[in-house]
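Sequence in, structure out.
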Amino acid sequence: MVVWEQRWHPLREEWVIIAAHRQNRPWTGETVTGAIADLPEYDPSCYLCPGNSRVSGKQNPDYEQTYVFDNDHACVSWEAPAISKKETGVYKSSPARGVARVVCYSPKHNLTLAELEVFEIITLLKIWQEQYRELGSLPEINHVLIFENKGEVVGVSNPHPHCQIYATNFVFKFIETEARVSREHFAKNGRPLFQDILQEEKDDGRRIICENDSALAFIPYFARYAYEVYVAPKETYPSLANLSLQELQDFAAILKQALIKFDNLWQMPFPYVMPLHQAPTNGEDYSGFHFHIEFHPPLRKPNLLKYLAGPEIGGGNFLSDTSPEEKASELRSQADFHYKKSKA
């Protein structure tokens, strides 16, 4: 049974999407570390490779660069049926309407984001810009969440490098909170909150991983995960769509540099969750919102997870087992060329 429903969590003030049909989506996972070094360039059994058929029966074109399609196992849909049950007391629900898409980075099954050339990353960034503009302009869409899950350890169902897009009729909780505090800080201080964060990082310097004229990567002072890296433009823009071509090129260069350092750290494809933090698209003023990408890697050491337990899941606050300054130093010391190329 296909169900697209969202239910309100009154204690956390957030929506929970119910999409139980996704339980049976195809799974072709990887090793626990997320390593894909030995995968072939083309896999005839992969439902994301060019020319192959997906579970839905649809066939991928023989794409040569980035490929975007509507997710066959979407968590939201324009076809979500009306909810017949009336709201009672504090419980309420509504159809989970929206768009879910998949973006394949490359036709090559074994080529990760870190291994794309800078010009290929620029092409991907332009696709993300287009998707944000297109989906965000739809009247029912209030938020466009773009994210990548990399590695089986974070639940990726197919190792072919790709990301997903959830365009929803509600704003995801973290973005909602970030937008609110950014608006409040801007109203009180007359400057974006993220600019104050960047200034603190620049003044300290120890947590900056790499930077160029208009972009930088750093582990924030308040990092929750051991290798939690932010990649951001130096100027404040509500979304990736607002960056100029030169800023886009600088951003792509820093993004690739940070990703290479991740992989070089333990000589393996580094698993992570990578969300793009972009302003909601509900028509409100987000001039104080600062677009950036966040990386949430689950590993503290090779094969050693940062487990979310009592403080994190039960209490809602992270307990960090490492020092952001030490971890930033580790990443900063890594070479700027990918370890696979150094072995070639």
